[in-house]
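TL;DR need structure tokens for one chain.
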Amino acid sequence: MNKTELLALLQPEIEVIDDTMRREFASINNPLLQEVINYAVFNGGKRIRPLLTLLAARLCAFCKMPEGIAEEDELTPPVDLYRLAMVFEFLHAASLLHDDVIDHASQRRGKPSANTIWDNTHVILAGDFLHASAMTLAGTIGDSKTLDMIGSATTSMIDAEFLQMQTAVDRNLSEENYFAVLRGKTGALIGSACEVGAYFTGASPEQQAALRTYGDALGLAFQVVDDLLDYQGDPEKTGKAVGNDLVEGKMTLPLIHAIENAPDDEKKFVMDLLQDEPHKRHDHIQKVHNFIEKHNGFTYSKQGAETLVEAALESLDIFKDCQAKKTLIGLTGYVLTREK
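>> reply
TL;DR here they are.
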């Protein structure tokens, strides 16, 4: 399944997700709050997380159905599933609003970030509103276990933010630490999106665990590819300047691997640069790019993303073949080849 086919297949679901969120936001009383939230949520997101909830639910519902009862395309997801799925988009959007305030970001998806249009107070409160709305929906549409799964993922995201800040201070170069940050910031929520979709349909514990593993591995692969795009991507497509992670002093996988495999003099230059002012790092983006390329940081990271995708694919082996499974497989290909 190529990218065009995949997007065409997912577009109707994306439209239903967007319509569901718009109806939810229509009840917001404060016009300014509604404006900030609409800007944050409908600013070009891919809807990967809610789509995964829907796909996981459809996969498990089809797999538990006796042979010959109905065709897969005859399964109509309940309205509540779409409302539960949008919980993950709310949490994702809330985290991006807060991240942009923390990072003093000026752009998000190629457009001005919310904190450059409104003040930080409004943006933080909008993120808090999305977070509170997500937890309310999780607890009312789902049950206590649903709330626990989503709450655990949210806690992991916050823990990972603290770990990332400490990593920046310590200049921690371990891959173990790097993946711990990624698993908390990205893998946990995506894994939870898959697991909750499976749980909603009464899937077995084995199926829930398999889909959580799929989501976790997919999320990690997504982030490793993001690290590569930061150095190798087209700013017109990514919406971010090349070397943005370096300017912010972030320890990403290509850079970690290159530093670990460089001679002491080159390593010292980069480590000193990471402790320098952001504008100094900006002036040396091309030099650091060449350094990473020389020490195989890009190749190593690409292979790492491919290995993670293989793990995601293996976790789907317990499910019988169907369109939902093909779409989940197609998403792994999209993650590896995406350009933004």
